[in-house]
Write a structure and sequence with these properties.
It is a single chain. The chain is mainly α. Helix content is about 45%, strand content about 10%. The protein has a two-stranded antiparallel ribbon with strand order 1-2. A hairpin with a 5-residue loop joins strand 1 and strand 2. The longest helix has 13 residues. The radius of gyration is 12 Å and the shape is globular. The two termini are about 20 Å apart.
């Protein structure tokens, strides 16, 4: 966990995952989505269809969490 200004999470080429500490202020399901998202980068480094199919395999309703972040994510920085 670390404070990041512009991203919710990152996965380095060596597999190190960083999550934005601001996620702790939001719903646990959104935190889980970002974690799953970054974990899937261990399978597929980019955001091609294979990546999104992996995310969907772990979290079938990931689009709801992703939309929550797009709509409400700015509130986590207050």
């Amino acid at each position: 966990m670390r404070r990041q200004k512009s991203v919710w999470g990152t996965c380095t080429p060596t597999g190190l995952i960083h999550l934005n500490i601001q996620l702790m202020k939001g719903p646990i399901e959104v935190f889980e989505y970002v974690f799953v998202h970054e974990m899937c980068h261990l399978i597929e480094a980019n955001h091609r269809l294979v990546f999104w199919k992996a995310v969907e395999g772990f979290m079938p309703d990931y689009k709801l969490k992703r939309e929550w972040l797009k709509t409400n994510g700015h509130l986590l920085f207050l």
